[in-house]
Design goal:
The chain is of the alpha/beta class. The chain contains 13 helices and seven strands. A seven-stranded mixed sheet has the order 2-1-3-4-5-6-7. Residues 15-135 form the Putative oxidoreductase/dehydrogenase Rossmann-like domain. It comes from Streptomyces xantholiticus.
Length: 306
């Protein structure tokens, strides 16, 4: 008997239920997700983008995919990614429904962290199948984003009957589905913004201060430190707290505040807020001794009054 080489089970051509994909909003997220779905065998067929940057991004990440108005994107696609800013999403959905662009049986997927599927209610009434798939990742708008989706967690919200479909799409993009209840979406998104968006602000501010202090390569100095701090925090939570606030070194904190007032007054409020929150958590976990906390909190209170 002649043996034949087994086919690769991951070959997109052998996968069932491949879909035509449209992107409404060619920002940083949409083209990356569409390109990832293309790797899984789905077929991007249309995208919409207004700015010159969006046009360039779509051309780079989705070559040969035509740009057209949103209504035309929906006319071509079985799976539509709505990848617009959070505040624009409700109006976009209502507009698409009012113009009868939404078709019964069409998968309508938004990537907003803030919203679940309730924001898609008008489209649901028009017969669409609503999904909320939010990748918990920061995007660059380049091909590297497709690689970073591997192992990325997605906040998933969908009707029970579409849960398997939603999770399958996430897995096809290389992600890990994490079920988020509708009522928990705003809190979920706030948690991510607190950890990721504010981290960028803190790191950028720290680099500016190091440059002011004469450090020629602040990124090189901070890289190992922040990498270790992040790893420790993810592994140990509050037990990873270190530094003058957690130790109760009130004199050092007072010196910090004085220097910040002199060289970077705009950073003082953020420093005081984070120091106070750190002190509260260190106290609650028994790391900051009460006898040291009194002087420390006094310094922070004085900082607010100046």
């Amino acid at each position: 008997m002649n043996a034949t080489a087994p086919q690769d089970p991951l070959d997109p051509r052998d996968r069932p239920a491949r879909l035509t994909v449209g992107v409404v909003g060619a920002g940083r997220v949409g083209p990356a997700l569409a390109a990832s779905l293309q790797l899984a065998g789905h077929r991007p067929v249309a995208a919409s983008g207004v700015s010159d940057e969006s046009v360039r991004r779509a051309a780079a990440m989705l070559p040969d995919v035509p740009l057209m108005p949103p209504a035309d994107v929906l006319a071509r696609a079985e799976l539509v990614l709505l990848t617009v800013p959070d505040d624009a999403l409700p109006g976009l959905v209502e507009g698409l429904v009012e113009t009868r662009a939404v078709r019964p049986g069409q998968l309508l997927v938004h990537t907003s962290g803030r919203y679940g599927i309730k924001v898609l209610e008008p489209a649901l009434r028009a017969g669409a199948l609503p999904l909320a798939l939010h990748p918990a990742m920061t995007f660059t708008g380049t091909a590297v984003d497709v690689q970073r989706l591997a192992g990325c967690s997605f906040g998933v919200t969908a009707p029970e009957e579409l849960r398997l479909a939603a999770e399958a799409l996430v897995i096809e993009m290389g992600g890990e589905p994490e079920w988020i209840e509708e009522q928990n979406r705003p809190l979920y998104h706030a948690a991510l913004a607190l950890g990721a968006n504010h981290l960028v602000t803190l790191v950028a501010q720290s680099m500016e201060l190091l440059r002011t202090a004469g450090v020629s390569a602040p990124d090189r100095m901070l890289g190992p430190l922040l990498g270790a701090a992040l790893d420790n925090a993810l592994r140990s939570g509050d037990a990873a707290l270190t530094g003058p606030v957690a130790r109760g070194d009130a004199g050092t904190v007072a010196a910090h505040v004085a220097e910040l007032r002199k060289h970077a007054p705009a950073a003082v409020a953020g420093y005081l807020a984070m120091a106070r929150t750190t002190a509260d958590r260190a106290l609650a976990h028994g790391m900051l001794k009460p006898e040291f906390a009194e002087d420390l909190l006094g310094v922070l209170a004085e900082g607010d009054l100046r």
